[in-house]
Design the sequence.
């Protein structure tokens, strides 16, 4: 016997498809939506549809943007000699919050993961390699998470860089082993950026 009306069950099921959302959180979110006024609910739905329609990958760094180029790639004040490679868009936000990095980014949208059958061709490595043909790039900070897959990806990239005249560095201490960049505080990320090491 169903506990809720069909429309509410469907709403809960939709929230459960989101990452890290369990049954209880999905239920709370669904009830929160039901408490909204019609205008608030319509605004919420419109924001979802607008984000899905307007947001795309920046053709240079693969970060999310709703413009031709993201705000970082289009900023002439950014240092174009250094690129920080991260796993996802949320990592860009985490590093930007430190105020310690003024270079460019490259978002991989994942990591190499043999256990999950994710290879180099399944993430944005081809786009990164294409960017490295630009003589302006002198250093690549590999800021993948300190996990098995993050380390595997970092080693793969560092091997590619050995053939080029580009320094590869990795974030230093401060990021806990097994941790995610998006959950690290600004002082920890600042220290990790300042103490990065050459691979």
Sequence:
């Amino acid at each position: 016997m169903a506990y809720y009306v069909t429309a509410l069950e469907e709403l809960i099921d939709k929230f459960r498809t989101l990452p890290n959302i369990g049954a209880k959180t999905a239920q709370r979110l669904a009830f929160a939506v039901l408490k909204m006024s019609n205008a608030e609910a319509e605004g919420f739905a419109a924001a979802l549809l607008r984000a899905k329609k307007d947001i795309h990958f920046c053709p240079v760094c693969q970060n999310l943007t709703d413009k031709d180029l993201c705000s970082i790639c289009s900023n002439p004040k950014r240092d174009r000699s250094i690129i920080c490679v991260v796993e996802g868009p949320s990592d860009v936000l985490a590093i930007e919050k430190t105020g310690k990095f003024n270079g460019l980014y490259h978002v991989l949208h994942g990591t190499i993961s043999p256990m999950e059958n994710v290879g180099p061709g399944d993430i944005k490595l081809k786009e990164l390699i294409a960017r490295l043909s630009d003589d302006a790039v002198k250093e690549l900070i590999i800021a993948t998470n300190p996990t098995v897959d993050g380390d595997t990806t970092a080693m793969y990239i560092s091997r590619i860089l050995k053939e080029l005249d580009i320094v590869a560095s990795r974030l230093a201490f401060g990021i806990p082993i097994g941790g995610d960049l998006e959950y690290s505080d600004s002082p920890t990320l600042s220290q990790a950026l300042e103490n990065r090491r050459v691979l």
Summary: The CA atoms of residues 171 and 193 lie 6 Å apart. The first helix runs from residue 6 to 16.
